[in-house]
């Protein structure tokens, strides 16, 4: 536990990066009495959080049991968060659909469904005809195709959620410093974090810094002479504007991922099309390919208009797993860096805030500690 030096007597914490992870950490700290400064080079929720598929799930997280369990805890934390701050238009617990386009992929999906069921995770196997009849009438899915339905999964409007959490943090006394980047993190003679200097020339006296800077996390880590290895894994996301959104839930179809986005829009993503980013293809062409793939699944989406497209870097530590918690070599410096930040934000925000305020390290984060990457 850190001892606060701020004039109010509260622990003063700068949270660097106010996407979904930073917002969750900041809100949890502020509501527990910390003196929080939210810092973002842009505007809250406008970075990778706004250009994520924003799918709350654990069905795609079976590579390590502890990671699966952490994501399940994230799903539970979302239901608690919706109760705490109000669900409004950001929370959409409508389930998730997945089906395959070839026998090999279908066999893999069904095998994963069996594993998930054995782990106590809710999954239903339906036919395409049943899905059209009961869930999504606009889909062009073969009648006999097996479709996995995960009823406990959801999608989130990330930018709206971040706005809600920032508002609640400010109500609890948090300070906002948006539109200015962190330029330096000062370390005292005892080796602990003491100051944060911003690009606008201001300097913050702090007791702790949380690095929640997403794709820029390795640069922030470098300010305390730490190497945080990150993958380079860009993704392209397109929003299309529809007069009427023809689907209700997130889905993984063959070759494309589709979900509603509220306000008459639909989000499209495809890992196959991500693979074309480094070939030099223009964003407009990638968007056209995404819409064409989506039209094969939901024909009505062919009538929609491409509104915005963005190629964003995903914030993925080198081994693919989160880096969350204190870095022992730099007292007062913490990391909250992860892919799947949408699913994990509420649980990581709660666990990390507790660790900062009490010094207790939760066992749920044992496999995801920053020190696995070295000093």
Description:
By secondary structure, the chain is of the alpha+beta class. The chain has nine helices and 20 strands. The chain has helices at residues 20-31, 65-85, 103-118, 128-134, 158-171, 217-222, 271-274, 283-297, 341-358; strands spanning 12-16, 35-40, 55-56, 91-92, 96-98, 124-127, 146-150, 154-156, 175-178, 182-187, 193-198, 203-205, 208-211, 234-241, 250-253, 256-260, 265-269, 305-313, 323-326, 333-337. The strands form four sheets. An eight-stranded mixed β-sheet has the order 6-7-5-15-16-17-14-18, sandwiched between helices. Strands 9-2-1-13-20-19 form a six-stranded mixed β-sheet. Helix 1 (20-31) runs parallel beside helix 5, helix 1 (20-31) packs parallel to helix 9 (341-358) and helix 2 packs across helix 9. 48% of the residues are buried. Residues 1-5 have low confidence and may be disordered.
Keywords:
disordered N terminus; eight-stranded mixed sheet; 30% helix; six-stranded mixed sheet; 9 helices
Helical content stands at 25-40%
The beta-strand count equals 20
Strand order of the largest sheet: 6-7-5-15-16-17-14-18
**What structural class do the secondary elements suggest?**
alpha+beta
Helix/strand order? EHEEHEEHEHEEHEEEEEHEEEEHHEEEH
Mean pLDDT across all residues, rounded? Answer: 96
Low-confidence stretches: 1-5
Q: If you compute it from the alpha carbons, what radius of gyration comes out, rounded to the nearest whole angstrom?
A: 21 Å
| Beta fraction | 15-25%
């Amino acid at each position: 536990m850190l001892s606060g030096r701020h004039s109010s007597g509260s622990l003063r914490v700068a949270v660097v990066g106010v996407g979904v992870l930073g917002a969750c950490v900041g809100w949890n700290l502020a509501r527990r009495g910390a003196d929080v400064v939210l810092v973002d080079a842009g505007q809250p929720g406008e970075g990778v959080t706004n250009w994520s598929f924003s799918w709350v799930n654990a069905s795609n997280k079976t590579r390590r049991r502890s990671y699966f369990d952490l994501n399940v805890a994230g799903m539970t934390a979302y239901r608690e968060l919706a109760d705490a701050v109000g669900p409004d238009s950001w929370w959409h617990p409508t389930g998730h659909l997945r089906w395959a386009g070839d026998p090999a992929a279908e066999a893999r999906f069904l095998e994963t469904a069996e594993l998930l069921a054995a782990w106590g995770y809710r999954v239903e196997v339906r036919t395409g005809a049943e899905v059209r009849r009961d869930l999504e009438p606009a889909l062009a899915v073969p009648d006999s195709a097996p479709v996995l339905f995960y009823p406990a999964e959801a999608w989130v409007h990330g930018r709206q959620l971040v706005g809600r959490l920032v508002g609640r943090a400010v109500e609890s006394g948090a300070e906002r410093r948006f539109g200015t980047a962190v330029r330096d993190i000062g370390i005292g003679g005892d080796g602990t974090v003491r100051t944060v200097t911003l690009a606008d020339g201001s300097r913050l006296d702090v007791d702790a810094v949380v690095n929640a800077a997403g794709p820029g996390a390795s640069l922030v880590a470098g300010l305390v002479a730490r190497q945080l290895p990150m993958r380079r894994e860009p993704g392209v996301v397109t929003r299309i504007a529809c007069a009427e959104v023809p689907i209700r839930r997130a889905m993984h179809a063959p070759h494309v991922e589709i979900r509603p986005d509220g306000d008459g829009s639909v989000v499209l993503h495809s890992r196959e099309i991500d693979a074309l980013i480094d070939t030099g293809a223009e964003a407009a062409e990638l968007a056209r390919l995404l819409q064409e793939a989506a039209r094969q699944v939901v024909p009505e989406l062919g009538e929609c208009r491409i509104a915005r497209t963005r190629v964003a870097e995903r914030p993925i530590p080198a081994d693919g797993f989160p880096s969350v918690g204190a870095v022992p070599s730099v007292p007062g410096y913490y990391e909250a860096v992860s892919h799947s930040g949408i699913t994990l934000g509420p649980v990581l925000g709660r666990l990390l805030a507790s660790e900062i305020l009490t010094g207790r390290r939760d066992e749920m984060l044992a496999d995801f500690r920053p020190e696995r990457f070295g000093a």
